[in-house]
Every structure is written in C-alpha cells, then in structure tokens.
Amino acid sequence: MQTSTTTEKRSLFSWWDLGENLIDISDYQALAKRRLPKFLFDFLEGDAEDGFARSNNAQSLNSVQLMPQRLVDVGEVQTKVDYWQERASMPLVLAPTALTRMFHHQGELAVACAAEKQSVPYVLSTMSSVALEDVYAANPNTWFQLYAYRDRAISQRLIQRVVEQQGRVLCVTLDAFEGGNRQADRRNGLRLPFKASLKHITDAARRPKWSADYLRGEPINLANMKEVQAQADGTSLFEYVASQMNPSLTWDDIHWIRDSFPGTVILKGLLHPQDVLKAKALGVDGVVLSNHGGRQLDHSISGFQALQLLPKGLSNDIKVFIDGEIRRGTDIVKAMCLGAAGCFVGRPYLYGLAAHGQPGVEAILDILNSELVRNLKLIGCASISELNAGLVMARET
Ligand SMILES: Cc1cc2nc3c(=O)[nH]c(=O)nc-3n(C[C@H](O)[C@H](O)[C@H](O)COP(=O)(O)O)c2cc1C
C-alpha cells in the first residue's frame, strides 16, 4: 500500500513538474529545447553541413574504454587541478560562446558568476553580448578569447583592455576566420544582424517566457566592439566585424600576439600535431584541440583524436586541452588518461543557462563534477593526477 502511494505520488509529481527531474546533460538539453524558440535552439545545436564532425566527436570518445584497477583506497578523491597561477576545482573550462544573452537575458554575466562560484575558468568570447569590463568586474579570473582581426589595431585594443582588467589568460581562436556552413541557420533565415522574419516571430510566439525576457532586455549587440562602431561607416557593426575576420592570418600574427600579451597565451582550434609542435616552438603556453563543436569544417577529426596523435610526452611541455561532445565525467576521465590538461565544454552550459540562468549553469557543473568524482572512484584513482594511459584501451571494432 505504502509503495503504491509513493509511486502514485511520484508519477503525479513528475507529470506536472516535468522539467525538474534533471539528472544529466541530456535532460538539460531537452529542457533548453522546450525553452528556446526553434531557430535559436537550432543555432545552439548547429553543426556544419552533414554533421559528421559533430557526431564523430561523440563516437571517438566512445571508441575508448576504461580499464579500472581495484583495491585502491578511494575513500577521498581529489579533482583539483592547477592552471598556471590558478587552482580549478576540476579539469573543466567553460568554452567561449558568442552572443550568450540570446539564450538568457543575463547571458555572459550568469556564466561568469557560475564559473567563479564553482572555481572553474570561463573563457569570454570576443563576440560576447556583455562588455568584457562588466564580465571581469563579476569574475576577475575570466579568460578572454580573441579573434585576431585584419586591422591589428582592433586586436591590439582588445588585448590592451584585457590587460587593463588584469586578465591573465588569452585564448586565440584560429578556426573561425570563415563561417562554417551551418545549413539549419540558413534554412531558418538566421543571419547577423538579426532581422526578425515571420518564421522567427512565429517560433518566438511559442516561447512566451523567452520572448518576454528578450523584449525586456537591451538589444543584443557585439558589446566589445562598440568602440569600432564609427569605422563601420554605414554598414552594421556585425557586418563590419565580419569583414574584419582574417583568412590571411599566419604564425607571424601569433608571434605578434605572444609578444603583445604579458600573460598566458593559448591557441584554440588546432588539430594537426605539427601545429601543436609549432605552437610550442613559438612559446605558446597551451592549445585547445578543437573542431569548434563540429560547427566549422565538417569531417574534421575530433579534439580527442588529435590528442592521441600527439608525439609522446608533448603534453608534458605544453598544456593540451580538448573539446567536442564532452558530456560525461567518463569523457573527462578518458581525456585526462591520454594526457589532456582539461576539457572545454560549450553547448552543455548553454543548455543550463537557457533552462535556468545562472543556477542552470551551476547545475551543469555540479553534474559533471559529481560524475567525475564517482568515476574516479570506480576506476580506482584517488586523484586526477593518477589517471594514465594504462587505464584505457581502444574499443575493438
Ligand atoms: C552557440 C555557440 C557559439 C560559439 N561561439 C564561439 C566563439 O565565439 N568563439 C570560439 O572560440 N568558439 C565558439 N564556439 C565553440 C566553443 O567554444 C567550443 O569549441 C564548442 O562548443 C565545443 O563543443 P561542445 O559544444 O560539444 O562542448 C561556440 C559554440 C557554440 C555552441
């Protein structure tokens, strides 16, 4: 009798309080889908062309299995890691994402505060919808992601502003000088600057809470770029900034950035092992092996595969992060076993943000942390630093 009453109560509860039984990233993904207009959820999920690069990101992680060791004392486990002058609560970094206020009116500020509270780094995008000064005021440990522009004066000014905020880490993204062919966005008529079509208005009308928040907030713009508005000369700021993306960037520009920024410089969007060797030779401090979440070059290898192509021992000399479909504590464990310094995540925290604002981002971090702790125990390692290549093997095909 007792059992049946409990079951009845539970099912009634979960029926009307549908969104609240959120135990993993996919639950937040489903909730974000219910909260955001379709064209925006499609933008968040977006991948290039046929989506092979994105699906391969997940498949490559699944192609490695874990070999736990037994009878190790894992009563207490340690997930903390050191990134240059900082201590992080776990080897996880919130990746840069553009125009985050589109997903929730608090946007980058909510993400920065969640990261500060849970002691993980957050990388603010150049293309953020909140100015970098406001984000540094909320979280002084923020890292800044830079796109290096055709006009060096624009990049120089951004670097100077980061230095003025005492920003310590600059993350230069190298794989987005040309927009990826995201066909869902093209089908949805989504382009910047955003001009609402009948389809967008119909999509938004189905999501009244999102629409009310969106209409209440400041118009969304490239908040870090207001200073160059005057140079836009009749075109919109978005068009001007897009025209400044630089397909002619070379290692000389990286040399220049390395010399211009007094702190830590990491390069994001590398995949080729030779490029990692060049980055190291140039005195860069770290790299993020990434295919931009499969949003740029379809059929590109994943960051996880690129990690396995590095010459042995290289990751002892330069910090190597990876990203792409990191969704579980076991994904982080696999990357760390193979020598990664940590994992970036993009879409997962945007799901949390779209669902519940700052508490949603915190919940995503909690989920990944508790999975990491549990999986460290189950694999038989008392500390992140004990993870090693002997604990993984390739799945037989
Ligand atoms: C909506 C969205 C916007 C993004 N904007 C940027 C950006 O401004 N700069 C950048 O370097 N990467 C950007 N990225 C890529 C992420 O930093 C990261 O490489 C990618 O999301 C990792 O894959 P994951 O989403 O599967 O975790 C963006 C990704 C998404 C989903």
SSE arrangement:
Blueprint: H1 2-16, H2 25-35, H3 38-45, H4 52-62, E1 64-66, E2 81-83, E3 86-88, E4 92-94, H5 107-118, E5 123-124, H6 132-138, E6 143-146, H7 152-164, E7 169-173, H8 183-187, H9 198-205, H10 208-216, H11 237-243, H12 251-260, E8 264-270, H13 273-281, E9 286-289, H14 303-309, H15 314-317, E10 319-323, H16 329-337, E11 342-345, H17 347-356, H18 358-379, E12 392-394
Parallel strand pairs: 4-11, 5-6, 6-7, 7-8, 8-9, 9-10, 10-11
Antiparallel strand pairs: 1-12, 2-3
Bound molecules: flavin mononucleotide (FMN).
Flavin mononucleotide (FMN) is lined by residues 44, 95-98, 125, 127, 145, 173, 268, 290, 292-293, 323-326, 344-347.
GO biological process, one term: aerobic respiration
Cofactor: FMN
Pfam family, one: FMN_dh
In short:
Helix content is 45%, strand content 12%.
- DSSP helix count? 18
Our Rg estimate from Cα atoms comes to: 21 Å
Report the CATH topology name.
TIM Barrel
Sheet with the most strands: spatial strand order: 4-11-10-9-8-7-6-5
Total domains: 1
Strand content: 5-15%
Structural class: alpha/beta
Shape verdict: globular
Q: What is the highest CATH level, the class?
A: Alpha Beta
Named once each, the bound ligands are: flavin mononucleotide
Protein name: Alpha-hydroxy acid oxidase
Cofactor: FMN
InterPro entries: Aldolase_TIM (IPR013785), Alpha-hydoxy_acid_DH_FMN (IPR012133), FMN-dep_DH (IPR000262), FMN_HAD (IPR037396), FMN_hydac_DH_AS (IPR008259)
GO molecular function: FMN binding; L-lactate dehydrogenase (NAD+) activity
